[in-house]
Design brief:
mainly alpha, globular, lysosome, transport, glycoprotein, Battenin_disease_Cln3_subgr, Battenin_disease_Cln3
C-alpha cells in the first residue's frame, strides 16, 4: 500500500519556550542598554570635564553615578582626603531630569506608542555620547549628561510598562540586565581607557549601545498583538469603540453592555490614576527609602571611607567599593527566579542600618580595614537590587489588569526620588567631615 508523506506539525510547547526565551533575552538586553549608556557616559563626562579644567586626567573606572578623584590629594588638609566638591554634585545633575520625567510622564506617555519611545530613547542616548565626546565647554558636557538622564528615565518607565504585555518572567530579565549594566559599564569603559583609548574615542565606540537597543526591541522581542507599537492606546480604544458602534446600531441591551465594558477597558481617567498612585504608596515609600540610604552611602560616605595603610590607593579603594556594590546589584536583580520578598520594607530598614553604621564608621573610624567596607557595600548592593525587582514584581501581581501599565510607570519614581534626596543630604555631610 502506498504511503503518503505527512508534515510534522510544529510543537507548540517548543515554540512557546522559544518565544519566552527571545522575550527574556530581549528585555535583558534592553535593561543593559538602557542603563549601560547612562553609566559609561557619566564616567566619561567626568574625564572630559577634568581635561577642560586643565586638571590631571586619569582614566576613570568608577561605576554608575560616581566621580573619580585624584589619589593622594595633598592639597587637602582634611583627615578624610576629600574632594573639594562632593560626588553628590554629579549625582544630582544626573538624576534630576530623570526624576522630573518620572513624575509627569506617566500621565501623558500613553499618547506616545512604544516604537516611537524606543527610537526617541536611542536617539537621546546617542546624542549624549556625541555631545560629551566632542564637548568643548562645561555647559556642553552637562547638556550631554541631561540627554543621557532623559533617555534612561523615559526608557525605564517605558520598559517597565511594556513588561505587562509579556509573561511575568521578562521582569526578571529586565532587572538582571539593568544590574549587569553597572558591572559591564565599569569594566568595559575602564578596559578601553586603560589600554590607551581616549575617552572621546571610547564614547564614539559606545554608540553601538543605542543601536543594540533598537535591534533588541524591533528584531529580538516577539510582542503580542496587544502592544501599541505605532498607535497610542487612546487611538486603539477609539478604533475598537468605533467598530463596536457600527455593530451595535440595533439592540439597546447590547449597546448598554458595550458602554459598561468601555468604562472598564478604556483609558484611565485622571481621577483613576490618582487612585492608583495612592495604592502604590505602600510600594513607592519603601523603594525610595532603600535608594535614599543606598545613595547616601555611595555619594555621601563612600569617598570618606579611606584607609591610608591599605595596599590600595584612595582612588583604587573607591573604585572597588563601587564595583562590588554593582556586583551585589547584579546578583540580587537576577534572583527573582529563585526567591521573592514580599515585605520590601524589611530591606529598607536593613539598608538604613547600613547607612547609619557607615556614617558612624566615618565619624569614629572604628573599622580596621577596607575589607570590612568591601563586605558591607556588597551586601548594600544585594539589598538595593532585591528591593527593586521585588517591588515591581508584586506591583504587577497585585494591580488590576487595566491599571497595571500605568502603575508600573508611576512606581518607577520611587528610586529616583530617593536618589535625589540622598544627593541633597550628602552635601552637608560631605562639607562637615571635610572641614574637620
Amino acid at each position: 500500500m502506498e504511503q503518503t508523506a505527512t508534515s510534522v506539525p510544529a510543537d507548540p510547547e517548543t515554540n512557546g519556550r522559544s518565544t519566552r526565551w527571545r522575550n527574556w533575552s530581549g528585555f535583558w538586553l534592553l535593561g543593559l542598554c538602557n542603563n549601560f549608556a547612562y553609566v559609561v557616559m557619566l564616567s566619561a563626562a567626568h574625564d572630559i570635564l577634568k581635561k577642560q579644567s586643565s586638571e590631571n586626567n586619569t582614566a576613570s573606572a568608577s561605576a554608575s553615578l560616581t566621580v573619580d578623584f585624584q589619589s593622594g590629594n595633598s592639597s587637602n588638609s582634611s583627615r578624610y582626603d576629600c574632594n573639594p566638591v562632593s560626588t553628590a554634585a554629579v549625582l544630582l545633575a544626573d538624576i534630576l531630569p530623570t526624576l522630573v520625567i518620572k513624575l509627569f510622564a506617566p500621565f501623558v506617555i500613553h499618547k506616545m506608542p512604544y516604537g516611537v519611545r524606543v527610537l526617541f530613547c536611542a536617539v537621546m542616548a546617542a546624542t549624549s555620547f556625541l555631545l560629551v565626546s566632542f564637548s568643548s565647554a562645561v555647559l556642553m558636557s552637562i547638556l550631554g549628561v541631561i540627554f543621557a538622564s532623559v533617555s534612561s528615565g523615559l526608557g525605564e518607565l517605558s520598559f517597565l510598562s511594556l513588561t505587562v504585555f509579556f509573561s511575568r518572567d521578562v521582569l526578571g530579565g529586565w532587572g538582571s540586565g539593568t544590574g549587569g549594566a553597572g558591572v559591564a559599564g565599569a569594566f568595559i569603559y575602564s578596559g578601553l581607557t586603560q589600554v590607551g583609548v581616549s575617552p572621546q574615542i571610547t564614547l564614539l565606540i559606545m554608540l553601538v549601545v543605542p543601536v543594540a537597543m533598537v535591534i533588541s526591541y524591533f528584531f529580538l522581542l516577539d510582542p503580542p498583538p496587544s502592544v501599541p507599537q505605532w498607535r497610542s492606546r487612546e487611538t486603539e480604544y477609539a478604533a475598537v469603540g468605533s467598530e463596536e458602534d457600527e455593530q451595535l446600531i440595533d439592540g439597546s441591551e447590547e449597546e448598554e453592555k458595550s458602554t459598561t465594558e468601555e468604562r472598564t477597558t478604556g483609558p484611565l481617567t485622571f481621577t483613576e490614576k490618582l487612585h492608583v498612585i495612592r495604592g502604590l504608596l505602600k510600594f513607592v515609600f519603601p523603594l525610595g527609602l532603600v535608594y535614599f540610604a543606598e545613595y547616601f552611602i555611595n555619594q555621601g560616605l563612600m569617598e570618606l571611607l579611606y584607609f591610608p595603610d591599605f595596599f590600595l590607593s584612595h582612588a583604587e579603594q573607591y573604585r572597588w567599593y563601587q564595583t562590588l556594590y554593582q556586583v551585589g546589584v547584579l546578583v540580587s536583580r537576577s534572583s527573582l527566579c529563585c526567591v521573592k520578598i514580599r515585605k520590601v520594607w524589611t530591606l529598607s530598614l536593613l539598608q538604613v542600618v547600613n547607612a547609619v553604621l557607615l556614617l558612624f564608621a566615618v565619624k569614629y573610624q572604628f573599622l580596621p580595614s577596607a575589607w570590612f567596607v568591601f563586605v558591607i557595600v556588597l551586601y548594600e548592593g544585594l539589598l538595593g537590587g532585591a528591593a527593586y525587582v521585588n517591588t515591581f514584581y508584586f506591583i504587577r501581581e497585585e494591580t488590576e489588569d487595566r491599571q497595571r501599565e500605568f502603575a508600573m510607570a508611576a512606581a518607577s519614581v520611587g528610586d529616583s526620588l530617593g536618589i535625589a534626596l540622598a544627593g541633597l543630604a550628602a552635601f552637608p555631610v560631605h562639607r562637615y567631615f571635610c572641614s574637620l
